[in-house]
User: Which sequence fits this backbone?
């Protein structure tokens, strides 16, 4: 029997890789460091996903159920890979549980780490309870509690969403763009307006990056149907006058300082490289690229190759990525990994 | 023996789908309407690709060679599918050549059509010979001729690249963003500066959408290393004073009209839906979405499904798409199509 493929990480990319391998008859060992599968959309409690509008618990939850029900996939939760040795077609991984997994190839679907807004202290997170992150707003929506100010539970009348928190910001070592926060913020803004029709929602941006077909579905729809207001601005700081949060900065289109009161300020947080990437790189013997993501080796003839033959990578492990593209990359890497398994000598 | 998978379109997505299917032992019938494989990057003569920096003729040319050399892939160039009937696992396609292909499933990798700049007449294309498109600049570079003004062959001293030509433009029925033109334009700007170090290159934009890791590699690098200048502007028209092209508009950051002379004006043209999509939708019985792209049915459990079971879609057929993501989607759709083939009754 052919050796299984080792898939590391149980988020969208890893779930897609595991399922698609099993669907063509390959065994899979799926290793996830958390106690549950699902990755960020499940573990962080995302609400409705971009661009499908499906609830994360249904969309990604469905992927989890399908993987859990598949006899060809052995699942190792609360586990890490601590050693990985061998050659393509004949690798062995030792897990933190002490057990050992043989594998023809490995796919790293190890995702990202949400930016921690305390690293941008002048924007008020950690100082004022009503400064929250997009992830917290997702949780307010997905839990059914609704949009409330954490300080006193009131419904906000004025909400500011600040884009690029932990993205495009050299001062704090995050030069990259996190790709999806603009669109996620448009989505959240519409959700807020739907729940609270009297609430004013402003989005402060550098460039609106609702690329491709997101343009119509998110940027235009949020303005025309939901009356979300977009202001091109550089934000200097978020303070408080004791009653309201005060957003200070410069409107870069009208070239004028702005000082505007809000009830709730939302940080559209970016995607950091997974904080465990240096450790993963060491265990799997793969290179990282300049910002700390896992480096890709070939973009054309074998998508998802790393610097080590037989070890592939997919999804946000390679840089900020959408869920749909992570799934596609997971499937693509699965295809490449499976091809290695077929070429390898059959295991005893 | 299992029936082959029908892959329609020989660009990056189709080449990836065909190769990956063959790599796991599936036969493929690859149908391409043009006389050669390679899709837009080859047929339109692209130069260095984003983000790899590899020449299109090497990168995509390598994918073509690999497919052409594979005995499991039968290639039908200068052919179209004229009829497609049957059910998942048991389809039959009739080609324009008269021959017939049995298929377990089909993958539409039918790509896009470059926006035709004559549909934006006030920006001077078709009126002034020195107003060209990004595709023409790619051809100047890839052919080795270099960047020249078509009117008289001189080296331009001042080049303007106008973004969003045929994108984000409701006046001409193109509301979507074409996703990759910002980054392609940054790339071209650097190429021009490298060949002609004394040439000034300006990019006129609405929002710079060098999303994800493109931010560092294209937006910042083009400014800091190559001194490309970015101006947020609304362009009204491109005229001529008899000697120079004149770009007129409004600088939207300093709120002031601009009237600036250039030697060469480049339209960063967008990606229209393939003009043949209505015909493809009819032949394959699949739905189109609102802008005329091929509609996707499911984003999570089976990526690349269309409205018809057993017919999948990948790449720019679904909307503006990058080459890398088209390849990933081609592989992903291949995986789903192969799984159908395995479930189907074995053909006689």
Assistant:
């Amino acid at each position: 029997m052919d050796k299984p493929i080792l898939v590391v990480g149980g988020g969208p990319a890893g779930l897609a890789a595991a399922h698609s391998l099993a669907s063509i008859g390959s065994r899979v060992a799926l290793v996830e460091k958390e106690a549950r599968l699902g990755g960020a959309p499940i573990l962080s409690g995302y609400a409705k996903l971009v661009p499908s509008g499906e609830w994360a618990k249904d969309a990604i939850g469905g992927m989890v159920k399908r993987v859990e029900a598949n006899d060809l996939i052995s699942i190792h939760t609360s586990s890490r890979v601590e050693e990985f040795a061998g050659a393509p077609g004949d690798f062995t991984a030792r897990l933190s549980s002490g057990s050992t997994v043989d594998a023809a190839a490995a796919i790293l679907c190890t995702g990202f780490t949400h930016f921690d807004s305390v690293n941008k202290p002048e924007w008020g997170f950690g100082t004022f309870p009503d400064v929250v992150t997009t992830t917290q707003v997702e949780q307010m929506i997905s839990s059914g509690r609704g949009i409330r100010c954490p300080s006193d539970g009131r419904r906000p009348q004025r909400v500011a969403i600040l884009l690029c928190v932990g993205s495009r910001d050299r001062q704090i070592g995050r030069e990259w763009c996190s790709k999806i926060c603009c669109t996620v913020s448009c989505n959240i803004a519409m959700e807020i307006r739907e729940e609270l029709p009297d609430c004013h929602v402003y989005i402060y941006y550098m460039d609106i990056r609702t690329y491709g077909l997101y343009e119509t579905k998110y940027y235009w729809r949020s303005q025309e149907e939901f009356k979300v207001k977009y202001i091109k601005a550089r934000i200097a700081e978020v303070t408080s006058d004791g009653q309201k949060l005060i957003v200070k900065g410069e409107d870069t289109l009208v070239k004028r300082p702005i000082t505007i009161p809000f009830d709730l300020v939302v940080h559209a947080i970016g995607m950091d490289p997974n904080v465990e990437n240096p450790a993963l790189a060491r265990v799997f013997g793969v290179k990282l690229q300049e910002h700390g993501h896992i480096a890709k080796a070939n973009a054309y003839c074998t998508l998802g190759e790393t610097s080590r033959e037989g070890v592939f990578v997919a999804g946000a492990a390679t840089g900020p990525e959408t869920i749909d593209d992570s799934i596609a990359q997971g499937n693509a890497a699965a295809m490449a990994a499976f091809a290695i398994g077929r070429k390898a000598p059959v295991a005893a």
User: Anything to note?
Assistant: Residues 161 and 266 of chain A are 5 Å apart (CA to CA). Chain A has eight helices and 17 strands. Chain A touches chain B through 64 residues (CB under 8 Å). Helices of chain A lie at 12-23, 39-43, 56-68, 134-142, 181-195, 214-224, 277-284, 323-343.
